[in-house]
């Protein structure tokens, strides 16, 4: 079983899939329905964060 997320080291290589899915409130098996690897999750998060930043920047420019 994975480590307690509060005690986990903050790096991707030491994070277990069960830690990621546990934080998301999902079953570990469901991870592979959407992602093939932890690296793919990281890439998806980067895209989402970039989109959020673009949205925030656009909102502040329109004021």
Automatic annotation (TrEMBL):
It comes from the Bacteria. InterPro entries: Homeodomain-like_sf. This is Uncharacterized protein. It comes from Nocardia mangyaensis.
